[in-house]
Amino acid sequence: MFRSHTENNLGSRRILVVEDEYFIAEDMVLALQSAGLEVVGPAPNPELALSLLAAERVDAAILDLNLQGLSVYPVARVLRSRGIPFVFASGFDHSSIPSEFQDVPHWEKPFDIHCFVQALPKLLSPL
């Protein structure tokens, strides 16, 4: 039931995962794949994320805010300029996000990854 509900709303979309914590990234990848989504990445730093964006088709993205001390905002700017929806998934409070990204959906860690995947259709609309 979980799989079909998500597939009906997201299909076989390609989701970029930008996360520097290995176990969190692995949990995200497995949950997204089990929902029928194709994962691009995960990218543990902004440079790799930008490289993947240059080389791969991406329909949406999940971004951690702080990647080994580096900001994910350059990646967010590229996504926004291309009209690609994204969500922040971070341990940082929403108030720490710059005003230019206050409209971006934000999930604070820790969160249940399966609930997160089920919420993706609404969070990342319009897909």
Description:
The protein is α/β, with parallel strands linked by helices and 127 residues long. It has a single domain (2-8, 24-123), classed as 3-Layer(aba) Sandwich (Rossmann fold). Helix content is 41%, strand content 21%. It contains 5 helices and 7 strands, in the order αβαβαβββαββα. The chain has helices at residues 2-10, 22-34, 46-55, 73-81, 113-123, and strands spanning 14-18, 38-43, 60-63, 66-67, 70-71, 86-90, 106-108. The protein has a 5-stranded parallel sheet, with helices on both faces. A hairpin with a 2-residue loop joins strand 4 (66-67) and strand 5 (70-71). Helix 1 runs parallel beside helix 5 (113-123) and helix 3 (46-55) runs parallel beside helix 4. The radius of gyration is 13 Å and the shape is globular. The two termini are 21 Å apart. Residues 1-8 have low confidence and may be disordered. InterPro entries: Bact_response_regulator (IPR050595), CheY-like_superfamily (IPR011006), Sig_transdc_resp-reg_receiver (IPR001789). Residues 14-124 form the Response regulatory domain.
Task: Record the SSE blueprint.
Blueprint: H1 2-10, E1 14-18, H2 22-34, E2 38-43, H3 46-55, E3 60-63, E4 66-67, E5 70-71, H4 73-81, E6 86-90, E7 106-108, H5 113-123
Parallel strand pairs: 1-2, 1-3, 3-6, 6-7
Antiparallel strand pairs: 4-5
Helix pairs in contact: 1-5, 3-4
Give a short synopsis of this structure:
The protein has 127 residues and is an alpha/beta fold.
